[in-house]
Design a protein that fits this description.
229 residues; alpha/beta; Rossmann fold; 2 domains; 4-stranded parallel beta sheet; 11 helices; 8 strands; globular
């Protein structure tokens, strides 16, 4: 049975790429809601309604588990979605936090995402829960997803926008930057140019695929049953 994946646009394809690398034999169904992108400026009720529609579609296509490859939907809606999904749902927040913990260290942690993701406080709360002593700096960066959707993945304009958003965090000397939107890994080159090599970049797409590895293994082991009489 296929693995379902959805996002508000093309950004979720970064998750698909990571999943295909981790599970090359797994069928994957991806829905990119380009008709209603972005989700980051919409209410929790609207994001939940859109997500339910897509989950219903993926289930009809046979998906036996679904990755909510949208940080905004993960932050605003995944709890309610799990109540009615009837298949396992995997959000982006938990795996992103696990990836930050794996980096280690004690310096400030930066989080960038859509306005809705940052305003929800989901990443800040999850990080503070496991490491209350950490200083968490969260910055909404709404223009970045639009730049990716328009294929502005490099160049002077994109670099200026990224630098403008990250300057407050750079002054605080962050040691980790969480890319809390699946569009943002496509801008890694620009982030690296602006931040240098000392700041670790946590890619939510790669973190999601890694967090699913143990789950997928368990599913495959349980899926095969042999009875000898």
């Amino acid at each position: 049975m296929p693995l379902g994946v959805f996002d508000s646009g093309i950004g979720g394809l970064t998750v698909v790429r990571a999943l295909r690398s981790a599970f090359p034999r797994r069928d994957i169904l991806y829905v990119g809601d380009t008709a209603r992108v972005p989700y980051g400026n919409k209410s929790a009720e609207t994001v939940t309604a859109y997500s339910r529609e897509i989950i219903h579609f993926l289930k009809k296509k046979g998906a036996d588990r679904i990755v909510v490859a949208c940080n905004t939907a993960s932050a605003l809606a995944v709890g309610k979605l799990r109540e009615s999904a009837a298949v396992p749902l995997h959000g982006m927040i938990e795996s992103g936090v696990e990836a930050v913990l794996a980096v280690g260290g004690d310096g400030p942690v930066g989080v960038i995402g859509t306005a809705a993701t940052v305003a929800s406080g989901a990443y800040q709360a999850a990080l503070s829960h496991v490491r209350p002593e950490w200083k968490i700096l969260a910055q909404p960066t709404p223009l970045l997803a639009a730049l990716v959707e328009e294929s502005w993945l490099e160049g002077e304009v994109t670099e200026k926008v990224v630098r403008h958003y990250l300057e407050p965090m750079m002054r605080e000397k962050i040691r980790v930057l969480v890319l809390a939107c699946t569009h943002y890994p496509l801008l890694k080159g620009v982030f690296r140019k602006v931040l240098g090599s000392e700041v670790a970049l946590v890619d939510s797409s790669e973190a999601c695929a890694k967090s699913l590895e143990s789950t997928e293994t368990k599913v495959l082991e349980k899926g095969e049953l042999k009875i000898y009489l």
